[in-house]
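haha ok so turns out i had the wrong file open the whole time. this is the CORRECT one, sorry everyone. sequence first:
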Amino acid sequence: MSPVQQTPPDLPPQALPEQGPPQPPGGMQAPPRRLAQVDALRGFALFGILVVNIGVFASPFYGTGIADPVFSRPRDVLVSWLIAWLFETKFYLLFSFLFGYSFTLQMAAAERSGSAFEPRFLRRLAGLALLGGAHALLFYQGDILLTYALLGAALLLCRNMDSRRALRIALSLTVLVSLAWGGLGFLGLSNPPTPEELSQYATEAQAAIGAYRGTIATTIAQHWYELTNRIWAVIVMVQGPFVLAMFLAGYALGRHQALADPWRQPRVLWALCALGVLPGLAGSAAYATSSLATVSRAWELSGLALDLLTAPLLSMSYAAALLLAMRTRPGAWLAGWLAPAGRMALTNYLMQSVVCAWIFTAWGLRLSGSVSPGGALLIAVALFLVQLPLSAWWLRRHAYGPVEWFLRALTVGAWPAWRRLPTQRLPGG
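then structure:
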């Protein structure tokens, strides 16, 4: 399963994958070079996830469909609508797809090293669960790592599944869950939330702002309340099934090494863009519009159902468009910056939450409910722009990101190298 890596000739040096060691004598197989395009896609997904997550940090009104009494100006509504249209529900799907794809690379690595894959992967999942639980309770209640750890066990059971069957299951999950939400949306048209229920939602949002502006103890207590009273249902009924579907889709394409040389057939990438962009944008526009406070909440579930059905198409178009862009000099330059951030995505993901918790909750500045949607978006862009050079700087000197180092130690049951050897330096290091 060693992928054959071919990099487009016009990629600049910083976008090239890290070179593996020379081919050993005697016909032994050398480890494959790291796929920089996969890291770049992961870095791209990391940015999209930050844009969405920071909205949750900034205001408990985010995603409720209830007007924020402080930020209801037309420009606030427009920014929120654009984020819902272009970002929400798109990038965690891409990140999940890449998790499934990387699963096949980890299987191949275990096979090359002669190690048993199952115990290694289970230790990795245990590490993700530990990190995710602490992350959700202390910093960000919308954590994805714990979900990955639980559903990763299901992916492990599918490690010998035929790729076509995996794709069929992924498609079935997507369609069936979307239809189920569509049915609930149809029923909701005749039974919209009452004014008393909407008032209760607004009261709870204001109470959450008070908790996040209070103390670290009240912040943690609010996280626990939201995890046990609301978020678990979102994970089980919305996020979880689509994470698993994308795991399986990534696994299926990983079995065929689809991202080892995605530019071999550029027409396929163009076809994926064309297939997904229009229905994806239309479904997301319906979802974003149904989430507006000025639109009856009766349409909210119908908009969600349409978005759930079409969001994977838009995510696919985003990924294909970025891969095509890598064949141009500007796109290759962008990929060269994204790849290091994606290579240490776990560290960056947790760092984003720590910084946002410091800005918005009692861990630091207590600005929850005080920053507009546009202001939160600018903070997200600034934070990610800092993470890009910081990631490149770190990986010129270290073999792994800090959290990736811990997770790898847990996975392989040994302490990996902390510093990067001179012969392992990334280009430009």
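The chain has one domain: 41-424.
again sry for the mixup
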